[in-house]
Amino acid sequence: MEKFEKRVQIAIKEMIELGYKPKAFMSMIFESDTVTAVKKLLNSKKVSEGFIKLWEKGRLDLSMENIVYSENWGDLFTKEEINISEKRLKEYNFINGKKK
Predict the structure, then answer these.
(1) Degrees (nearest 5) of the Cα angle 88, 80, 47?
(2) pLDDT (tens digit, 9 = 90+) per residue, 39-91?
(3) Is there a contact between 59 and 18 (Cβ–Cβ < 8 Å)?
């Protein structure tokens, strides 16, 4: 879990450097923990505002969906959550770290 948390923090730092501060997501992490916050994003019926902002900036590589889908986190995420990540990335023409 520590490796995942570090990976998410690196992504957040890069988002901030791009001029997007994911305040709502950071608040979610503060209220629970990183994995729980990401699971909440994934299990939402619609994509997050942050996902849309990253898509607009051409940086879905920093999205939680891409991090969950493109890297192996052992048992942190269910097959269904990984599938949700993949589906969202495909819907926005971004898969395996590349815009299609």
Answers:
(1) 30
(2) 999 999 999 999 999 999 999 999 999 999 999 998 999 999 999 999 999 99
(3) yes
Cα 83 to the center of its chain, rounded Å? 13
Render the burial of 85-98: b for 16+ CB within 10 Å, e for the rest. bbebbeebebbeee
Residue with tokens 């599938």: 83
pTM over 0.85: yes
Cα–Cα distance for residue pair 10/73, rounded to 1 Å? 16
Coil, strand or helix at 63: coil
CA R_g for the chain? 12
Residue type at 75 in one-letter notation: D
Half-sphere exposure of 61 (CA within 13 A, CB side): 10
> Which residue type, as a one-letter code, is found at position 88?
R
